[in-house]
Structures are given as C-alpha cells and as structure tokens.
Fold each of these.
Amino acid sequence: MRKIAIHVTLVIVLMLHMVPLVTIFVNSLRSNSEISKALLALPQFFDLSNYPVAWVDGNYLVAFANTFIIDFGAVAIVVIVEVLAAYGLTKLDVYGKQAFIGYFVVGISVPAFAILVPLYFVFEPLGLTNSKLGMILIYAAIFMPFTLLFMRSYFVGIPRELEEAALIDGCSELQVLRRITLPLAMPMVTTVALIVFVNSYNEFLFANVFLQDPDEATVALAFYSFVGKYSLDYGTIFAAAIMTLVPIVLLYFILQRRFIEGLAAGGLKG
Amino acid sequence: MGGRSIRSPISLDTKGNLRMKLNKRRLKATAFVVPAFLLHAAIVGIPALSLVFYAFTEWNGIGTPKFNGVENFRYMIIEDSDFHAALGNNLIYMAIFLTAPLVVGLLMALLTMRAGRFQMLYRALFFLPFVVSPVVAGRIFMIYYDPFVGITQFFKSVGWDSLADIMFIGNRSIALFSVAFVDYWHWWGFVMVIFLAGLHQVDRGLYEAAMLDGANSFQRFAHVTIPQLRPTIVTLAMITVIGSFLTFDYIYVMTQGGPAGATEIASTWIYKQAFTLFNAGYASSLSFAVCLACVLVYIGFRQIQKRGWDV
C-alpha cells in the first residue's frame, strides 16, 4: 500500500514535471492557428511543416556546424590539458603544486561574469570576437577549473604501483599517462567531456556578447534570434526549440548515468 | 595553502643551506600543469585581475580608461538606486532558491530512494530539464505565460476564472517569481540527484540503531537523515547563494529586467551598463563588487565546512 502511494506520487510529479517538454514537442507538430486557439491540445493531424521553415529561416545548418566545432574544440582542449594537469598534480613532483591547486580552487569561485567585460575589450582588437577560436578558448577556460578538480580526485584513486611498473620498463611519464593511466581514467574523462559539452552547448551569456555575426551564431543563439524574428509564429518556434534540444537530450539519454553520477560525486565533495 | 607547502626553486633545505637548483625532473613534471594554468590565466585570471584596475576608472570600453578613484564605488553605494533594487531582487531570488528546490529536491530524493528498481528511471527523468538550454526553456515559458495564447487561456477554458486573469510577466509583483519558476523547474532535479547520492552514503546501521531505540520515521529523519546530509546541504546552500548573485540567463532571455525593472538583477544591470550604456568602467566596479562578495561567500562556506560541519 505504501509502495503504491510512493509510486503514485512520483508519477504525478513526473507528469507535471514533463508537461513543458511534452507540450513543446506536441506543439511543434501543430499549425500556428491551432496553437493560438488552444495551447494544450493534441495535434489534429501530424504536421511536420514547421520543421523545414525553422531549419531554413533559423539558419540551423550553419548554427549546428558552428556549435559542434566550438563544443568539440572546447572538449578536446579541456580533456587534453586537464588530463596532463591532473596527472602532474597527483603523480609528479611539480614545482608549486599547492599554489597551482590553490589557483584552480580560487578559479572555481571567480564567476565567469567577472571576465565578460575586460575579456571582450581584449578579444575585440585581437579579432577573437565573432570567432570560433575565441569561443573555444573561453569555454575551455571557464569550464576547466571545477572539472579539473573532479579529474584530480579520480586520478588520486589510480594506484601509482601500476604506473611505476611501466616506468621501470622504460616508459616516460607521458607514455605511462597515455598507456596506463588514461585508459583507467576513461570513465571520468567521459564525464568531464559530457559536462563541458552540455555546458558549452547551452551557454548563452558569452555567446550572446562575443558572437554578434549571425553566421557565427551557436544553436542557442540561433534559437534566441529566431524567436525574436518570428515572435508570433508559435508552431515554428516550437519546432526550432525541439531541434535545439534534440542533440543534447539524445546525448543525455545515452550517457545519463555517467553524467549524473559524475556530477553527484563532484557535488558531494563540494 | 600555507607558505610552507609552496615549494619554490629557491629555498632553505633542512640543514638551513640556501638551495637554488632547478631540478630537470621536476621541471618536466611542472610542464604537465603549465598548459592548463596558462589557458586559464590568459582567459580568466588576467582579465579578472584587470577588472580590479578598470573598476577605478571611467571608461567607455574603447578609449583610454581615465582613473577616477573611488567615484564608481561612491556612486554604486550612495546613488545607484537601480542597482540597490536589483540587489534586492537577487536576495528574493536567493530566498526562493534556498527553500523551494531544497525542500522539493530532498522530498523527491526520499521518495525516489524507495522506488525500488525504477529509481534510476525516475532519477534520469527528474534530472532531464537540467540539460535543457535556458534559452529554450525561457523563451518557451514566455509563450506559456502569454496572456493571449498561454496557460491562462487553458484556465479560462476549464472555468478557473480566478487563475485566468493572472499576468505572469505583466504584473510587476509576480514577474520575478514567474521567471524564478522556470529556473526552479530546471534546477530542482540537480538538487534531488545530489541529495540522492548523499542519502546512499548514509550508514544503514544508524537507521537500525535508531529503530532499536524506538525512533519513529519522523525522528529518524530529523535525527539521522538531516545530520548525515548536513555537508550536502551546506554545499548546496553555497552553490545557491553564489548562483543567486550571478544568475543571468533566464532573466535576460525572458524579461531583460522588465517590466519597469521588476526583474532587474545585478547581472542584467551590469550587462546594460557595459553593453548598452557603454559605462565599461562602472560595469567593472559592479562586477568587482559582486565577484568579491561571491569569493567571500565561497571562503566563508569553506571555513564552515572545515570547522567540523562534515560530521
């Protein structure tokens, strides 16, 4: 009896929780006049015509290309520099180790907002505004410190004995990292890559300031300006919303365990 | 980080002799950390430091910054009533997020714990809005809040007339809550996941001991669960307090601070100062003040965590 009550409560909350997402999807299949008459209703017939309109007028092809270049670039940089740094900070005798760790801890608490204004006026003359490279560098830097601490605590748990055996066999530290430590650290590398990817994909503040050229827009920005242009054409707005959400939701469902458990482990440690 | 632990190439060894030797092996080791450090310093560290300089200047963002002492801070503290009102809204935002998501998140975590083999499924679905882009959530909720096509039309059609006249965004006294609701929808699943992980770490033996002592389920909750979750609660409170002062996306995307400043918060005000009014100097002072507050809060919470709250 109690078990049933728990499930009933959970299902009710879950249904309410999902209403916004479900209505976005349902409404993306309805015409504008249908939506204007009743927001919460099933489609009269499945009408996919909103999607091509949103795809073309929202410049989504370009936006997806931009987003994937920027996000994969940021993920690649974060993973490379972070794996190296985590290895150095946990396994090697690094000069000023505590100072580096302290720097990254303070780096977590420096809000991204602090750098928005000064960075913009540095990047502008360097040609790094309206630039994918500029965004890659920004995302890699702002999403690095807290994921670095996740990575570091994971590396602590990888036994040094294994690595030392390889060192005795004549490997350099870099080879040990690549052949022994990195394969063992793959679960955390996946988690970090996911966190950086999702955060970069959804990031709005920096993209909005640094990417004013519509041809450089990311998907989040493309959606934002599309809504501005088509503010009363609800059907296509909902279709554009679905196109914006699909890649990240798919990725989430495939890898949600790594994502949630990685974040929870980091969150518990604070 | 005591001075003792910072090892520099110039130092006194145990016998008190001056040692000044760069060890090749240690230099190689340090090279592992340097790329991450340089990247972060170039993009975040140095600009954040330059913020401190710009904070004391009058600057439009393009020309040469003109030093003007503490004038920006005087204006900020004494005259800028818009900023004061914005900070007030940040405090309301903080109050909302220190209560609603924490209570709901904990409650749902406790229920989900008892959901048996469906636990993972519930967890995954409750967490889903956390990965939804704030731009999409914000803009779509603006349609739901629209008085002509939105949810109020649904209320009208089912005859809930008292709800049908609500102006979610148009009414200045509820606009901030309407925006906060979207952020809450996106956020509480994260809180739940953290609580769930915390609950799984609670030693089952403590509950058994409490039951042997005759504690009822509320007493077990109050005297075992809550104390055991205390570090988790402190961490979440820290994230909430800092997050409340930096929050930007939902407000900017939905109302840009309107109607008539009803949802203006520190970050949207800074954004306007920098990129609409071109007061980059003053915007830097505002950012500096807000960031300083956040760093202090962060240090404060770290101290709390160190001082035995991790029981």
Amino acid sequence: MSDDGAALGRRLRERDLGAAPAALNLLESTTAADREQAAALLAEVSPATLGGEAHAHIIGVTGPPGAGKSTLLSALLHAWRSAGLTVAMLAVDPSSRRSGGSLLGDRARIDFDPADRGVLIRSTAAGERLGGLAWATRAAAQALAAAFDVVVIETVGVGQAETEIADVADTVAVVVQPGGGDVLQFLKSGIMEIPDVLVVTKADLGQLALRTRRDLSAALRSLGSRSTEVLAVSSLKPPAGIDELVAALERHRGSLDLAARRLAARRASALTDFALEHGESGMRAIGGRRAAEELLAGQDHGLEVPALVRALEEQMA
Amino acid sequence: MANMSAENTPRLPERDRPWMMRTYAGHSTAKASNELYRRNLEKGQTGLSVAFDLPTQTGYDPDDELARGEVGKVGVPVCHRGDMSALMDGIPLAEMNTSMTINATAAWLLALYIVAAEDQGVAQEQLQGTTQNDIIKEFLARGTYAFPPAPSMRLIADMIAYTVEHVPKWNPINICSYHLQEAGATPLQEIAYSMSNAIAVLDAARARVPQERMAQVFGRISFFVNAGVRFIEEHAKLRAMSILWEELGRERYGVSDPRLLRFRYGVQVNSLGLTEAQPENNVQRIVLEALAVTLGRGARARAIQLPAWNEALGLPRPWDQQWSLRIQQVLAYETDILEYPDIFEGSKVMEGLVEELLEGARAEMSVVAEHGGAVEAVPYMKAALVDSHRERIRRIEAGEQIVVGQNRFSESEESPLTADAEGGILVVDPAVEAEQVEQVKRWRSGRDQAAVDSALADLAEAARSEDGSQNLMIPTIAAARAGATTGEWSRTLREVFGSYRAPTGVGEATAAPADDTLSELRGEVARLQETLGRRPKILVGKPGLDGHSNGAEQIAVRARDCGMDVVYEGIRLTPAQIASSALQEGVHVIGLSILSGSHRELIPAVMSALREAGVSAPVVVGGIIPDQDVPALKAAGVSAVYTPKDFDISSIMRDIIALVGSGAGREVLAGGASANGAA
C-alpha cells in the first residue's frame, strides 16, 4: 500500500511537522506506486500551489571529516530553536557502500532534545551517486521547506559536495577547521566553487584559527569574491560566534533573488533526474541538453521537479 | 626473577602468602550490601570489592530520569555520605583493603570513603585500597564515562596528586586491560592498549606532581587484567606486561627502585568466554583461568576475584559467589602452587611466547603513539577492538574456535542447577528503586542546604580554574562532608566540563569478506529492498545506563555487512530518544540491547514510547535476559528475544530480515505521529 502523497503534502503545507517522517519514507521510496504518490506530494508543496516559494531557508553545510560540523550544527540548532524556528536536518552520510549497507552515525553526534517536536533529523546514505547527495535528498529538502523554518542539508567532503548542494540550497556554508589547507588549495585551484559563507571552527585554538581565517579571506579577495563572509566560531562551552553566523546566513539569504535561485535549481535538478533516468540517448531524443534547457525555460515557474521531468519526457514520444 | 633457593631444593624456603581474595559484590541497597560484605568476610574473603550500580557509576541520583530501572541492579547505589557509612558499617576501615569499581565518579566515591572513615575515627593516611578510575577503557569498552576526555584525565591526575600526598597507601588508579579483552582484544592488543593508557595517565600526572614524587606515583599505579581460558598464553601475557612495565618505569619515568618498578595487578578472570549453554562448564573455565594468574610466581596476581558460573544467565546469588571464592581457597590452601619459585623460569616455550607478545605489543604501542597517544587514539583503538571482536565471533560461528556446549558437544541433560523458580540467579526486588528515590529525597530535605550549595559552588570554581590549577579532590571532599549527592557532584562538573559521547567504533569497522552466508543474506536484503522501495533500515539502540555495547556494535556492523542501513547512536539512550529516532529515521525494525538486568522496566518503557510516537516497526531485544522474563517482554510487544546462547549472528540477521519481510515491519505508520506539529 502507498501512503496518500497528496494528503501528506497538504499536511506539510499546513506546517504539520508530524507528517514529515511519513513524507520522507515516501520520497525515498523507489517503487512505481510510491513514486507516483511522491509526485503528488511534491505538487502539493510546489510554488504554484503555495503561491510562491516555500518559506524555509534551505542551508547546505559541508566540509571535510573532522572539521567540527556536528558540534557546529548542535550549536546552530540550539540558536534557531531558541529563536522559535523549527528545524529539519538531512544528514547525508558518506559511509562506504562497498558492503551494500551503511552505518548512519551522524544523528548521535547532534545534541538535541528528543522531546522537542520542532526538530527533525533524518540520516540517509550517500549511496550510489557521486557528489555526496543522497538520491532523495533534494526532493526531501523541497518538501520540508514548506513545513519547517530552516532546512539543513549536511554532507561530508570538499570539491564536488558543495557543487551538488548548491543545486538545492539557498545558502551554502563550507566548514573548515584551523589549518585546513585542503579547502584553501581547492579554492585557489578552482576545484571548489566559492561558497556563500565560510566557517572556521575551533576558534578556541587561537592563533591557528585566526591565521586560517586570514588566509581564506586573502584567497577569496584574490579570486575577486567580495560577498563571501568568513566567520570564526567556537562550539565549545561557552560557544562564540554562533549568533554572528546565524546573522551571516540570514544576510546571505536576504541578498538573494530567492525565486530565481530556486527556479534555476529546480531546472538543474530536472535535467539531472532526466539524464539519470534516460541516459544520453534520452537526452539526444529530445534534441540535446541545450534544447532541454530551452524547453524547461518555457515551463511555468511554479512547477516542481517531477512535473518538469514529465514535460521533458513528453518531448521524447 | 632469581629465586634459586639454597641447597638444591626446588622449593621456596617458606610458603608464599596467598593473594588477596575478593568477590565483586553489591546490589539493592547499602544496608543489604553491607550484610553481604560481612558474610563474605566471615567466609574467609580478605578484601572488599565494591560493585556500584550504574547511576552511581555514571553520576546520577536514583530519582533522575536516566536512572530509571537501573537503581541497585548491577551494584549498590551510593548517593551520599550516609549511604557510604551504611555500606561500611562495622567494617574496620583502618584494616580493610577495599577495591572500588568506579571510574567517572571515582574522585567522588573516594571522597565519600574518606568521609565515612572520618566518621569511624580513621584518618585518610591509613586507608588502603583501589579506585578503578581508568577512563580511557570506559571510552573504549565499558561506557560509564561522564565527562569529555580532557577534564576526565584532569580528574584522574588530581586524584593521583592528592592521594600520593594524603592517602599514600591508596592505589588511585587501576589501568584496566580486563575490559579490553571483554570487548574482543587479542592478548597483544590488551598489552599494547593498556600500556599506552598507562603512559597517558602517567604523563598527565607528571604535569601535576613534583618531579621527585614521580617514582612514588609510578609505584602506586596498578593494573586490572583479564585472563582467558588459553591460560598458557595468558600467563605469557602477564610476564610480557611486567617486562614492559619495568622498562617503561626505567626509561620514560626514571624510576630505579625495584620495589616501585614491580608490575602489580589484580584480576577478574574472563566473562566473555562464559556460556549460557551448559553453564556448569563455566566452573572449569574459571579454574583454568585462575591458573593463568597464579601458576607462575614471576607474574602472579596480588588480588583475585572470580566471576560466578551463572554470569551469562543473570546476577549471581551469594551462594554462586561463594563457590567462586572456594575455588580461590582450594587453589591457595590445598594445592602446592605457593610452595615453589617461578616454575616457568628457563622454559623455552614461555620465553618464546613472551618474546612474541613483546614484539607485537611494542609495534602496536608505536601505532598508538603515532596517533598522538592513548587519548587521541581512542577512535583508532575502538575500531580495532570492534574488528577483533567480530573476528572472534566469526571463528565461533564457523566452528574454527570450539566452545564446548555451545558450538560443539551441545547435547545436554536437563541441568538441576537452573531448575529453581528464578532460574538460578539473583533477582533484585523492584521496590528497591522506589525506596531509594524516597531515601534521597529525605536526605536532601534533612541536610544543611546552604552548606551544600556553597560547597558545590566551590567545586564549580575549582573546575573552572585556569589550567586546572586547583586540585578538584579538595572541594570534592568538602562537598561530600557537606552532604551533597552523587548526582549533584556530577551535574556541577558536567555544567563546567560539558558532556561527551564516545566513538562507537562501528563506522570505521572494515567490511566483512563475503562468504556464502553473507552473500545469501545480502540477496535477501536486496529482494526486500525492492518490495519496500527503500533499503531496509534498522535502528540499533541501547536504552538505559548500561555501557556494555559490544553486542550492539556487532549487530550494527553485521546488519551493515548484510546490506542494511543502520542507525546506531551509541549507549545511554532514553526511551524518548529511541522513539524519536525510530520515527524520524523511518526505520523498518528496531534492535535493543540491555545487559544490566534493567530490561524488565526499560523495554516496556521503550515499547510505550514507540506506540506514543506512532511507530509500528517490530522490536527485537538482545542481552542477558533470563528465560522467565521472556513472556513479559513478548506481552509488551517484543517480537523476539536473543540471549548469549544465540551466538550465531547470521541466524539473528536472517530472523530480522524475515521479520521485516513478513509485513509486520511495514514502516512507520502512515502519517506518522499525531497531527499536531510543533508549529
């Protein structure tokens, strides 16, 4: 049996957070019946139905292992909840799929009150795709954005991870620990896109943290980026810099043309999904990538991803 | 050791004095445990070994939410100076040698012991005994930690600095290799990790005591080791440890006095190898293991406690423990082992074994050193232990390692030993918990609150002191005197130090080589995934305060190897946390593990939390669960119960996959929890 996707979508639209776990079960499912219901769910939370973009701030947080992401997220979670904001966190676990299964350990590292119904944490395995983003994470973020105030997507890695995450997040924050030379090199060499916010953790380490922050700022300037803020935080007791980070994330979102960014993201996602489903031959059948982009540009701006994919598929026939 | 006695006689001129004989004991209340201790001493036991309950070990009062179901279960609750006085009532502390299995809260329990001695008119200088106080192995294997690594190490160093001046006959720490073996360590790992641990402790202490005291400090460090049934190799392990220890003292800490360089150890022999099937066989295992630590004079234990034959079934009764004490007494008083010099001296086999272990241990110690020492290497060591343990289980499953009565020779007559109504174990009266909750409330209302508040404020200030310049033992003893409780002491420090979750070791565990069974299970999981639409997802949870996570870790790793997505959050979860995780993660099945005997209270609590959250995923339970408790768990909604006799994890996995497939495990209820969100 399949859950009623449309009903779940309506509940999310009404900000009923209790609908979220079942909605995620549905969005993660690959059976044909569930996929159909998932599309119905997403239609209920599409900009067209909502009468505008979903209200949440979708934030991507990424960085190398050991950079202190979990501790930072615990502190951020606390700050957002204190401000009365509801938060959904999608933790994408990088653990190897060699054996088929995954150990999802992220949840344990985030400190939160289990009785707090304003927080949802969901772990998924990075799974079959490169780039760190789980298959259903994008759809999940879009659906939850209608119900929660903040949706965080946490991934591990530097390089491709933040590129993928940029396809769905409004704001991408890259987390670096003091002395984290990789990120600096990746930035300089262009392996890594310039993030919206750079966070240097473990500011309690003092000089080393200061120097890392200075090096990153210098690198950004030399790359001609003026808008990326570099912040130093310490999640140890007493935490420092967390309120400033919350403010910086909000500033970034305020500076965005949100509708344009999300529209571009939906189109990019539709292309990715189509290519995954039908491969290069499918792409050729609809006249190539360029033609596909043009076709998407002609669609209603309020359509959700599955509707856009359907529009491309109709072109194949 | 040159003990060639004169005149060509192979005997010692005088029979050696026996080692100290203890029984690890305590349960229900301070009063009940005191009666037990007195009886044990009358039976010829020569030292005390106090088992504390889990709330006391982890720093919670009996009325704390986390203490639920755990009060008085695996040991005695000691909440304040009144409890400690009752526990030691009528036992002369000036003469007694008391070993306390206490770690995160060791400073606090030692303070209560000092205050209880004051009440008897005994000065702290006279006290003899040991606080286990080894936090690294808690992170690695036992799980009763309370604070993050750095402040935990500071507490240990403070205790060492304090006792070496003021309680000179006290062993402030027992470096434990015992629990490493229980967690799956090979002899080589046991040596290397415990020695690395000792280095971390001694280095921390070196920063807190005057240089001229270091030799004294070195001399007060003792070990708590394990001995398995391969008793020849186990004996070699102890000889290797004494060689390494002496080397370490001379080379790293500049100790030259041979008395201070002696490797001193107490022992509790192996519990991991004790079986639930045909439990009477455990008696012979225990005897052989005792030989490992007594046979050779060159590395003989100073103190021994033996487990009881029925540990894999539940809590041992006084009679079961008496049997184990009598084993020690027969060894010491009836056999001739105490009449000879070291019987292995000159043995090529023994020397070869020792050499082999030394070489391997030194190499592994340098790996730990490369990680930055034992504290930094906790995640590395934890993952290595999870791997070793998995290998051990694999060998038993495959029949490569024979366990009599379990994977070989398993046909058996009905055992009269377990025929009584309770199944041959001790059952703690559930009324104990309520009684303790009332008792601590009365205590709090009857004391000078202002004095307690002020003592706790001093404690907080000392904890905050820059670079730990103030020794925490001083305000800790003052708080004990003022009547503070275990929970208050711990909470004060948690507020300054923060709390901590140790690494689970499962994320790093290497993938298992695919054998036929595993391939078959993976196939089943893949088929199930197609039906479900999602990869089967399991939540492995440890409710309560029990830190024995080896079983849960092995289930988590195997479920992953079978192809499932596994949510494992480590130890010490409340029923609310488990329910919240199950709901939010959308798991298909839940596995719970409890070894502390608190399943009667905690499992039904988890089941009702799950129902309240609207989770319908089936639940299986593993742990030390007596047969007679199974019907109640099933009635509470548990689908299956696994105990130590279910050693074949593959077949547990097969059951779990079938359970999910049977449709009982069709996800979280549609629509999730009730319709009211957080808004």
